[in-house]
Design brief:
Blueprint (H helix, E strand, L loop, with lengths): L1 H4 L2 H26 L16 H31 L4 H23 L4 H23 L7 H20 L1 H7 L3 H30 L1
Helix pairs in contact: 2-3, 2-4, 3-4, 4-5, 5-6
Amino acid sequence: MLSNLLQPDVLMVMGILAILVACPTYFVYALARTKPAARPIPHFPHGVEGWLLLFVATVILSIILTLIDAANAINIMREEGSISWFVLSPSLVIIGLYFYCLWLIARKREASVVRQTIVILWVVGPIALLLLSLVFDVAVDNNTVIRSCVYACIWTLYFLFSKRVACTYGTKAVDSYVKIALQMAEAQKAVKEKEQAKDQKKK
């Protein structure tokens, strides 16, 4: 399998895909930097960087893959003689929700961003697959459903418990981190006072 991945054609496709993901990801990163964090705390991460930027990259990758699937569907329908926008509507809705999610992350600094992002994660993931199966009668692979659920669960936990997310968007979780920051500051102050006391005794 590794040898297949190292084929020149595969490497070229992966390189193009990496560029297509990296450029919009950097654009979102640059756009997000113009907005200050809702509740920055000293010594705590904030801003659209780290794992949050990785999430942005996965969303952009999902948009690209959804566009490719939609383009393939359009080509097939053209060969059959007609294009059904009803069939394409799930892809269009998913792409629209993903773009809205990116806009929220880059331009908003409110606690509601976290709630809306989590809802979008589940709507475009497991719920979308369920609707495709029930409403559009599309055969959905069990492994795809499992991967979608795992992806949504992992990022949901991240958005709920991440210090970076809490400081950037000012969620209620940031209050507990403020207490931790104050405790850290008090501990550092106590250490400095002890060191100063020792230095004075030596003198």
